Amino acid sequence: MSSENQTTAPPKNWDTTSTPAPTAAPPSAPAPTPETPPKGKRSWLGWLIAALVIGGMVWAKMTYFPSPNAGEKGGKGGAAGGAKGGKGGPGGAGGPGAKVPVQVYVVAATKLSDEVASTGSVMADESVTIQSEISGKITSLNIQEGKAVRKGQLLFTINAADVQAQLQKQEYNIKLYRDQEQRQRTLLAKEYISRQEYEQSQNALLTSQADLAALRVTLQKAYVRAPFDGILGLRNTSVGAYVSPGTAITTLSRVSPVKIDFNVPSRFASAVRVGDPVQVTDEASTKKIEAKVYAINPQIDPVSRTLPVRAIYANKNMELRPGGFVKVNLELGETAEALQIPTEAVVPVASGYTVFTVKNGKAAVQPVNIGVRSDKVIQITKGLAVGDTVIRTGILQVKAGDRVSIQK
């Protein structure tokens, strides 16, 4: 057929008023490949990964970060039954039904020596600073430092030449006044003079005698002697030095016996008695000696609220030196049936002291009053009885009403 006989059909026109024109066919979806899985498969894989992540987090939490309120078994039971609203497993250690492990002490009557611990100072029985009462130059010095001297022994002398001269002059005046008084008495007997003239001569004699006595006392002050038996200290001057009243020359101390001053709390004031034994520990040598109370101050110190007490010790072998620091234990008596518990069992509170006791397997709070205490035990004067069980360990973990498990 020739190309001339071929005709082209005119394009078909659609009436868009009634029927819409056909549109192009939508492009077909791309075929799935291994790199791009189907949509349904991709959603299922995402949920699987999320579930694995959440499950891993829950496992790590239960394994490494267990709940503080769940026990070893109780936590697992709670996790298993919590999702369905069921009950968790029985609580383990630390759970609601757990028992707190504690150690206890059973109260018993014991023998107690009432002692008061304090600190004290050693003092010489007698101690004085040797000084001169008059001014002058030292003419002789008989002081051997650190040596013992007897009462009345001459220690040093002061130049008193002027006093001796005045003393001699006064002796001459007394002789003159005595002769005048005798003559005046004779004249008065013959009524040649009045009584007034005689009394004037008599007064001159008596005044001169008083001046002589005063000069003799002054002369005695130039010779300084030991006032009591003791040991001399270090001297502070030499022969030829000029001294005045108040100048310290040396010291004199009686160190056998020695005194020990210490204070006790005012609540023990009524228990202290003269003659009570005192155990003294020297800080330097740590040697323990026994002294006795021999004087008690009648008044309590209003500042420290303590009672000053003084003990005495023979100190024959010079165990203690004046000025030393000592530890003192004052024995106030002995109690045959005292109740004592370990120190760590007592809990101080605002209102006083309390302890935890065990009753029917549960902890209970018991207020107590304390007495004598040491670093290991405390006396209980009120609140406990023989046979009571007191918690001594685990106090920080236990509270009233908790069930406890007594450990050995």
UniProtKB/TrEMBL annotation:
One Pfam family from the record: Beta-barrel_RND_2
Gly residues compositional bias, start-end: 76-96
Pro residues composition-biased segments: 23-37
Coiled-coil positions: none
SUPFAM superfamilies for the chain: HlyD-like secretion proteins
Polar residues composition-biased segments: 1-10
Domain CusB-like beta-barrel positions: 260-331
Region (Disordered): 1-41, 71-96
Record's keyword terms, sorted: Membrane, Transmembrane, Transmembrane helix
TM helices/strands, residue ranges: 44-60
Protein family (similarity comment): Belongs to the membrane fusion protein (MFP) (TC 8.A.1) family.
Protein name: Efflux RND transporter periplasmic adaptor subunit
Organism this protein belongs to: Hymenobacter mellowenesis
